[in-house]
Write a structure and sequence with these properties.
The chain has 178 residues and is an all-alpha fold.
Length: 178
């Protein structure tokens, strides 16, 4: 499940979802939070059920090294974004800029793992970050920035997870039918 990436997509999608739903206060937030948790768990259970144990790629030493380098650079940039935005007094920009960083990190990952499907969340996360920046430039409140970025990012990651599970299930059926 985590080898196929679905677990990561589900959990990071939940993180973005929780960020987006932080725009709501009190009891109005409870239903979307619970719904997000249900979606994440359902995706992981679907991956476990529909994806074979072999669904994960067997990574070469070079792929593991590149993955670690790309992820390390991503996390370093996220820390830099958070620190710089905090020092500059614009913490509202952290979510859109982090979405840009995360979206861009999928570009080299798509190539390393030969998974063109990763270009979809790349484009959508960059779009989520750009949309959040537009809301901020238009003097939208921080809650709106978080809502736009968080929900768009979550849906893009969960959509990619659904695509992965569906493709794996179809592939398994074809293999079983032969």
């Amino acid at each position: 499940m985590f080898k196929s990436g679905v677990g990561f997509l589900a959990l990071f999608g939940l993180g973005w979802w929780l960020l987006g739903t932080s725009a709501f206060n009190g009891p109005a937030r409870l239903v979307p939070v619970v719904a997000g948790c249900v979606v994440a768990v359902a995706l992981m259970l679907a991956a476990r059920h529909f994806l074979s144990q072999a669904a994960g790629l067997r990574f070469s030493a070079h792929q593991r090294l590149r993955f670690n380098q790309i992820n390390g650079a991503q996390w370093l940039l996220i820390v830099v974004v958070a620190v710089v935005c905090g020092l500059a007094g614009v913490p509202v920009l952290v979510p859109p800029l982090v979405a840009l960083v995360v979206g861009l990190h999928f570009l080299p990952l798509a190539r390393v793992f030969e998974q063109p499907r990763l270009l979809v969340p790349s484009v959508l996360l960059v779009a989520a970050g750009a949309a959040g920046m537009v809301v901020w430039v238009a003097d939208g409140p921080a809650e709106s920035v978080r809502l736009v970025v968080g929900l768009t990012a979550a849906l893009s990651l969960w959509g990619t997870a659904i695509w992965t599970v569906a493709e794996g299930a179809i592939s398994s059926r074809r293999s079983a039918g032969q």
